[in-house]
Write a structure and sequence with these properties.
TIM Barrel; two-stranded antiparallel sheet; 12 strands; globular
Length: 386
């Protein structure tokens, strides 16, 4: 798969000084984790699922989760499983596609049962999403998957979802996260990324964020997210890629507060129409939250509508300025540390404290590319809206 591959080659060359690399199932696990980008969730009971997966992959969706858990009613689970097997077989017979494809299960026994029913068609899967993940629950999932033999099963990865009440409750949070961290370390080769279930976390406290608020405006939940990143997203080699929480809105509404997108950048690019379109679909809130995700140590995002995908990827592209700073910080001549003035003459690059950021930025640049000097996020957003 390759991000922005759905764009015309001329457009990619105009926008990027370094185009995104092709990422495959044989690529480095951390590279694949960053490449998740906007992970689209779809209920597993959709009757045209195989066609939808292929169509959306062609439109730029590079990671897709087919959900058998909260997206499916309890009394519809058996039918949803049957539909999923039929659709994935159909998808495999058509040649598969270019996205990382996962199934969100609701119990450990579903993993071997689904793999048995899928047979060779299971080759289209990248792995499983494990909900309500705590160490006791997670150990059952991981032990179940580890016990399955065969070349297909051995390549499957997992993405645990941190969303249980024990993580929200302050008196148990540290111990629970510490136990999860130790379990994931023991199965590191199986773990692609860590996801956070913001909707379930909010539900523990009876909260639901308004579309005019980011998840970081809900301070009780923001504290939980900070602790998850602090425990599971460390940059010392023990952490994992932690993906951003779901954005659950996708249509316009009457506004109480001012829009979150300034007019000036769009006026300068003469694309005020784009700003109006983004506001009409509530994408200004999503865009602000993606920026906050990145600032808080998260990469990628869970989304529930295809219209969200390009916005996530546009904001994950590395700017020419970010790339220049990262290269400067990692210059072998700066190995002893010290402070360097940015080539853009607008900030200091302190080599030792910024080194981990630079490594992560260069990794992201391989997956999402580096934009040309003078190309803004408005340019990328506009192309996605075209």
């Amino acid at each position: 798969m390759q991000h922005f591959a759905h764009l015309e080659p001329a457009a990619r060359q105009r926008l990027f000084q370094r185009v995104p690399e092709v990422v495959s199932r044989d690529s480095d696990r951390e590279l694949r984790a960053v490449a998740l980008g906007a992970t689209l969730y779809s209920p597993a009971d959709r009757p045209a699922l195989a066609g939808d997966i292929a169509k959306l992959a062609a439109q730029g969706v590079c990671s897709h989760v087919l959900c058998l858990e909260d997206a499916v009613a309890d009394d519809q689970l058996e039918a949803a499983e049957a539909n999923l097997v039929v659709q994935l077989r159909r998808y495999a017979e058509a040649g598969g596609g270019d996205s990382q494809l996962f199934v969100r299960v609701r119990m450990p026994d579903q993993i071997p049962a689904l793999l048995t029913r899928l047979g060779p068609a299971a080759e289209v899967l990248s792995g499983f999403v494990l909900p309500k993940f705590t160490a006791p629950v997670g150990r059952k999932y991981l032990d179940t998957l580890t016990a399955i033999r065969g070349p297909i099963a051995e390549k499957l990865l997992v993405m645990p979802v941190i969303e249980s009440p024990e993580v929200v409750h302050q008196e148990t949070r540290t111990e629970v996260l510490h136990d999860i961290a130790r379990l994931l370390q023991a199965h590191r080769e199986r773990v692609l990324a860590v996801r956070v279930g913001a909707t379930d976390l909010c539900g523990v406290l009876g909260l639901r964020r308004d579309r005019e608020l980011s998840i970081y405006d809900l301070h009780p939940i923001a504290g939980v997210l900070a602790d998850i990143v602090g425990m599971l997203g460390r940059a010392d080699g023990t952490g994992f890629v932690v993906t951003g929480p779901v954005w659950e809105y996708f249509s316009g509404h009457p506004r109480l507060f001012k829009p979150l997108l300034r007019t000036t950048p769009f006026a300068e690019q003469e694309v005020l129409r784009l700003r109006s379109d983004l506001l009409a679909h509530d994408l200004d809130g999503l865009i602000r939250e993606i920026v906050l995700d990145k600032a808080n140590g998260m990469t990628g995002k869970t989304v529930i509508h295809p219209s969200h995908v390009h916005a996530v990827h546009a904001l994950l592209a590395v700017t020419a300025e970010e790339y220049a700073d990262a290269k400067d910080i990692l210059d072998p001549a700066a190995a002893q540390g010290g402070v360097r003035r940015s080539h853009y003459n607008n900030k200091m690059n302190e080599v030792k404290p910024h080194r981990a950021w630079a490594h992560r930025t260069l990794l992201r640049s391989r997956v999402f590319g580096v934009t040309r000097a003078g190309v803004s996020m408005v340019d990328l957003l506009d192309l996605g809206a075209a």
